[in-house]
Specification:
heterodimer; A: about 110 residues; mainly alpha; Arc Repressor Mutant, subunit A; 2 strands; about 30% helix; elongated; B: about 525 residues; alpha/beta; FAD/NAD(P)-binding domain; seven-stranded mixed β-sheet; seven-stranded antiparallel β-sheet; 12 helices; about 25% strand; globular
Chain lengths: ~110, ~525
Amino acid sequence: MSIYLDRSRSIGEFVPEPDDGLIICRCEEITKGEIRQAVHEGMWTMTEVKRFLRAGMGLCQGQTCGRIVKGIIAKELGLEAAELPGNVDRAPARPIELTILGNEGEQ
Amino acid sequence: MKRYELLVVGAGPAGLSAAIEAARLGMKVAVFDENSRPGGQLFKQIHKFFGSKEHKAKIRGYRIGAELLSEAERLGVEVHLNAVVTGIFEFMEINVMENGELCHYKGNAVLVAAGARENMIPFEGWTLPGVIGAGAAQTMMNLHGVRPGQRVLMVGSGNVGLVVSYQLLQAGIQVAAIIDAAPQVGGYGVHASKVARTGVPFLLSHTIIKAEGTERVTGAVIAKVDEKFRPIAGTEQHFDVDTICMAVGLSPMSQLLAMAGCRMEERRGTVPVLNEYGETSVAGIFAAGDVAGIEEASSAMLTGRIAGTAIARKLGYLDEETFSGEYQALKEALSRLHEGMFSPENRGRRDLTETDEGIPLSQSLLKNGYIEKEELTRFPGVVKQKGIHPVIECTQNIPCNPCQDACKFGCIAVGSRITKLPEVAKDSRCTGCGMCVASCSGQAIFLVNEDYDETGASVTLPYEFFPYPKAGERGLALGRDGRPVCEAEVISVKSSPVMDQTALLTIRVPKEMAMTARFYRAKEG
């Protein structure tokens, strides 16, 4: 079993840090403390944190914060960022207006 | 649904190069780019490229971009701008958002050359206006003609941080300092030196702590870090700046490949697993350029050409024999770029102590951004001789050799391995033409004449700042560290089309300053 999935492992108590108020996901205004807290509430993957907090679900689709969020979750779990799977990529890769999505090109 | 033989995502150096190869062999190609201008990063790269002739060395990036674009157009490649590819689906179908519609295209092959995005690091105040990516600063200056600020702190000493710092200076913006958490300058020593000699301090083992200001950036606080990159209390330093530029690395924009089901791996960012021709684990989907692993534009053009050629072979436009010949040549050109101190396999290494030739590296260059005069004499480009002669302050094994071709008199030798340090012949027949000075992409070549007159020496240096000084003008000569060392008189400023906007500024300094004076500054007021 991948280490990040072993939920029986203890990661210790949530310990507040002085920079917990730092905004990490700028689009959705999610702070570092909220992400760290979410890990302690059981959100151990990027996907879980994203669905729980909306970090990475804004206009830029995690282009800026994705890497940082991953680093914060990994650190909280005592892992290297590379050990943690990233977000699942799906179409549309960029935000798209519904009027365009519904406007299929004639060609 | 429109059909093409090859669909290319991204009109940067990799995408255009691949499109050109495929179209040249008779394929019907469409290229899509989400930006309003093609060329990717090329059009904002106003510096001269490294490498050798086959890598378009000593040509400025934007000129290479223009060349690629006109070649693509000549070959009938359709370039769609403001065209955002939103997904890659089964059977080589892509969705493109363009002109207010969602259009469907189908190809026999798809090449993803989507490039990279800039990394950010969070710190107090990092969301304030005025904290920007170095690439964003470059876009503002070089594409839109807008200064991002008046006084900038650069965070990151890799090539992006160094090159953009220099371009900020060229745009008339002050650079307060270049900082890096690492203990050594990350980019080419020659890039660091050309910034350091203008007087920009390098602070290694320093990180940004805080952007000050309420509405926008009004200052920055940095601090020294320990070996685990943790800030050391009590070492804080304040800078009055209105802009903080972040040059802390790039990440591949590989989402389209991941969603297409290509096997991905973590290698300094999420990248596709590719075979030697750039094909992903999904047959028919290829990747080239930064999206497949961060390098620079010269490699991107080559990986693009390799992929374009391989796609042509796969689809029957190129026979096996011709392909293997072309592939071999491209692969060799790529491997020539992948040698030396900054090769992909040496990336991040801090334990290199000497050059390939066995010469100890300049430690000052790695720590301060400039070489100490005392360290110079051990390098083969620095030879003392009578009369005018080149002094080549190129001390790291980087892939570059235009200096060798520039000298018609055979004074400069790099050899066939382009990462070798250039050597100046002992009894060079230098005429003082200065072509080597103008051709050096790293601005590391100077002409020195210690016998200029009774008491003075002349130093010719590469100069890329407007307005040019005028002959007869008096100012200050600066040392490699950017500190004034003596008075200097401008003897001449030469510029010609072949030098491509690198002017030759010749100053007269006291004889004993011939090997110290390396930059010129007009007196204030």
